[in-house]
Amino acid sequence: MANVGRSDTHCTTGLDKLLPPGPTSSLPPPPRTPVREIRESRRQPKPTSFLRNKPPGSSSDYPSSSRRRIQLQRLGLKPNFHQLDVSDINSINTFRDYLQNKYGGLDVLINNAAIAYKHSAPEPFGEQAENTQRVNYFNLLDVCHSLFPLLRPHARVVNVSSSMGHLTKIPDQEIRNKFASSSLTEEELSELVNQFIRLAKKGEHTKYGWPDNSYSVSKVAVSALTIIQQRAFDQDSREDLVVNSVHPGYVKTDMTGGAGYFTTERGAEAPVYLALLGPNISSPKGSYVWHDKKIVDWVHGPVPEAV
Fold it and tell me: Where are the stretches annotated Disordered (predicted)?
């Protein structure tokens, strides 16, 4: 799958400091699975772990990881690696058990792993739709289901969305109303995503009001999931759990083929801001946040310039 790009995902077991990140089912497994590498720091008083997605068919990322390890060591950190295959529920649960046994809980989770097919990709659109929703939405959901029980009071979750994840990217008003429903459940959201996949395989998705962009659908789903998750957090016995989705900007990464306006450091600003929100904040919570840290109305807009 050489025409697939990627971005990264991070989590941390410490809220006191978060470093900027580098350049997340019910569906059958993909032919080649995306792999995340976990970077963790053993610094005191709380260690930090970084999860990095490696897309299907990509070359080893260890040279880049080694360089970043050196950078972290210069900051007094001692990162190690832990492997996780997000398409394998056993691998996810093994990582969960590792975090539970070693650290006892989790304070920050940033779900940023994703794939996107390039315009030149030869795969049929139905295949692109299925693979994109699997990695960008269903695998993210699997990770959340496994790791959310580890969240400690005042934990922060950041779901990295996109400018393409704004609800106005869905052409049909009836479908938009379903996504925007205040009573939408995870199960209903997943069924909406599966509906898109089924129609895409038949070549009928645009006929029934879906966009001709599988990445956009996956990110709209992630944005909608964030709202559902915050509703659940508000009823959770653990105090002050907060989740937000964020558009980090058009960042120069492998996924964009090196194109983009922002460096990875600039693209990390809004996600890190949301990861380090202070205790007992009232806003943003369950919000769709732009790269400039401003809350955007996810349902009605207006949508700022997609930078």
Answer: 1-68
